[in-house]
Amino acid sequence: MSDFTTGSALLELCEKSNISLSEAMLLRETELLGTSREENISRMAYSYSIMKQAVHTSLESKAKTMGGLIGGEAIKLNELRLSGKNLCGNVVSRAAAYSMGVLEVNASMGLIVAAPTAGSSGVIPGVFLSLQEEYGFSDEEMTNALFCAGAVGYLIAHNATVAGAEGGCQAEIGAASAMAAAAAVQLMGGTPRQCLSAASGALANILGLVCDPIGGLVESPCQQRNAMGTSNALISAEIALAGIHNIVPFDEMVEAMYRVGKSLPYELRETALGGVAATPTACSLCSSCIK
Amino acid sequence: MKSTSVFDIIGPNMIGPSSSHTAGALRIALLAGKMTKRPIVKVEFVLYGSFARTYQGHGTDRALVGGILGFSPEDARIRNSFDIARERGIDFSFRPDYDTKDVHPNTADVIITDDSGTVSTVRGASIGGGAAVIQQINGVDVKLRGELSTILVRQKDTPGVLAHIARCLADNNINIAFTRMYREAKGENAYTIIEADGAIPAKVLSEIEALPSILSAILIEL
């Protein structure tokens, strides 16, 4: 059996068989779910095409979102970058713009890929499209890397949670960021060990982040946290690629994140009763706020 | 339960903004709609917990109507589901219930009236990641997720029902994955839920319905 339920088991499998995280996840999928390799790859290619389309849609025109709290951010960030006045460099600037664009599409009832959730759906497209444009990876390479991201997300969902209502934003954006970090390392030629080290680092960096959406809507601060999630992923990947190894292994970090999530008060787990959602300005913005 | 797929993590592909409040809500109504054999003319949604408070901003209302219309969670028509339902002559309404506390935070009752005037009430909860579970049918506690091909049988609580269903399935070479039975009270209305591996041919349903104590057999395949 090629199933695995922990990062250490996955790593052992990869190192023993000399395969990537993507390959291990693909083997697991074909064996456990009974679907063919080709079927899984073409299905994932379709997912990537949805991600791309969402980014492109957001750059074309400003959308009207359900809550009306956001809209037009991707276009503004893109204009800043094209004017050459961006601070962050092309890779980070693009990733931030694209991730915020996907959240805008999501909030206006457009088609997205929940990866792992709708609220964190911008992180992976942001990092992926930015890296593809910068380094010229093919769609096949990007599709393959999504299986690597999927492996990390599966381990977090299996051993902890990816739901904001359960574990706070650290679980949603944290998971998306860890998934994107591992995939970025793999795309840039890093080892499976470096992939998991980057994922562990990405989780550690935003440990404790609360889920406090204004009015309970998936708009603000969610959208900006997706942008932050992309930069966190890229920084964590860069650290791992430099050969800096994370002291705490991935599995232990997932467990730590889960424990922190469970200790977060109810008000800070997607209830819109605390944090940013409970500020006077946030409450005045939204009539559906819980008074 | 089936193993977690990579497409549960990189996915579902869905119309936003929320997997629990939009995609999961749609799935509740989709399952409820599939349990109704005759055309639906009216549907009332009672919303509890977080659904009651935030249903408009999450498009929960449009998603629920989209589910009744049989849309998949990635159908771009969800945004316009109200207009499409009106065109199809389906009357719909929403009633937030802020007082009931002892339910899952994302729960909806789907009260469906078909063209013969029969009213049925289905309660479902959106349990995260776009998944949903049906918890009650006409007041009877059940558990139905619709992940596998599912047959919902409504019957009188009498001896021999399960044996008859099992024989029909065996005769058609269908492997049962899970079976559960639920009833209102001894000797009264009861439900059998069967989940099977692979597709279930429609002729099995009429074979199951041949037993007089079986009121109906409905196939739910999403």
Cα end-to-end separation of chain A? 52 Å
Secondary structure tally, helices of chain B: 7
Given this structure, which CATH class of the largest domain in chain B is correct? Alpha Beta
Q: Which strand order does the major sheet of chain B show?
A: 3-2-4-5-6-7
What is the strand tally of chain B? 11
Principal-axis shape of chain B: globular
Per CATH, which architecture of the largest domain in chain B? 2-Layer Sandwich
Please state roughly what percent of the residues of chain B sit in beta strands, choosing from under 5%, 5-15%, 15-25%, 25-35%, 35-45% or over 45%: 35-45%
Alpha-beta classification of chain B = alpha+beta
Give the quaternary arrangement of the chains: heterodimer
Largest interface: A-B, 57 and 37 residues
CATH secondary-structure class of chain A? Mainly Alpha
Distance between the termini of chain B: 16 Å
Order of helices and strands of chain A: HHHHHEHHHHHHHH
Specify the CATH architecture of chain A. Orthogonal Bundle
Mean pLDDT of chain B: 93
What CATH calls the topology of chain A is: 2-methylcitrate dehydratase PrpD
Rounded Rg of chain A: 18 Å
Can you characterise this structure?
The complex is a heterodimer of chains A (291) and B (222). Chain A is mainly alpha-helical and 291 residues long. Chain A has one domain (7-284): Orthogonal Bundle (2-methylcitrate dehydratase PrpD), CATH 1.10.4100. Helices cover 65% and strands 1% of the residues of chain A. Chain B folds into 2 domains: 6-144, D-3-phosphoglycerate dehydrogenase, domain 3 (60s Ribosomal Protein L30, Chain: A), CATH 3.30.1330.90; 149-220, Alpha-Beta Plaits (2-Layer Sandwich). The mean pLDDT of chain B is 93. Chain B contains 7 helices and 11 strands. The radius of gyration of chain B is 17 Å and the shape is globular. Helix content of chain B is 27%, strand content 36%. Chain B has a 6-stranded mixed sheet. A 4-stranded antiparallel sheet of chain B has the order 9-10-8-11. In chain B, helix 2 (19-34) runs parallel beside helix 4. Chains A and B meet through helix 2, helix 3, helix 5, strand 1 and helix 7 of A and helix 1, strand 1, helix 2 and helix 3 of B.
